[in-house]
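hey
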């Protein structure tokens, strides 16, 4: 006895109809896959769903760019992306700063060699549409304990920490 496939939800059906012209290859492949054979099925499901969300939920893009603007306002740093890289120097300094930020309630990743050259380790901050203005304000306050925002080199957007 073979198990029948569960019926698609109305959202899945809407996603497929909306994006069929955008990604026909992926959607056709999606309809042919067997969950027990194809290991990347979740990724293939996520791709059209993400495109659907991007099309239908523009508030997310708006909120994200509001958080970028909030970061600019609170720090004075003219960032142009929701991903901010702050150069702190040594591995020890980057790990220490990352740990301090975690203690302050923020998951800020230390990026170290071999990803970056030695002594150019950095902190990576990723702003999200789900963050609120107050979150970014608290983040900027926590960062200001380690970074002198007035010392930022605005020409090449390198941010140097004062650890």
């Amino acid at each position: 006895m073979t198990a029948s496939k569960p019926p698609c939800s109305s959202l899945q059906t809407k996603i497929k109809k909306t994006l069929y012209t955008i990604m026909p290859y992926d959607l056709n492949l999606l309809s042919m896959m067997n969950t027990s054979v194809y290991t990347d099925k979740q990724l293939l499901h996520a791709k059209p769903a993400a495109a659907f969300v991007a099309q239908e939920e523009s508030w997310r893009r708006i909120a994200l760019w509001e958080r970028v603007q909030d970061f600019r306002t609170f720090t004075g740093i003219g960032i142009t992306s929701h991903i901010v890289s702050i150069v702190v120097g040594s591995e020890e300094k980057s790990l220490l700063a990352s740990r301090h930020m975690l203690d302050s309630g923020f998951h800020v990743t230390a990026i170290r060699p071999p990803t970056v050259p030695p002594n150019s380790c950095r902190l990576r901050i990723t702003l999200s549409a789900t963050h609120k203005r107050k979150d970014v304000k608290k983040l900027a306050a926590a960062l200001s304990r380690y970074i002198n925002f007035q010392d930022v080199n605005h020409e090449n957007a390198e941010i140097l920490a004062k650890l």
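The chain is about 45% helix and 10% strand. Helices lie at 10-19, 24-32, 41-56, 59-75, 91-103, 133-143.
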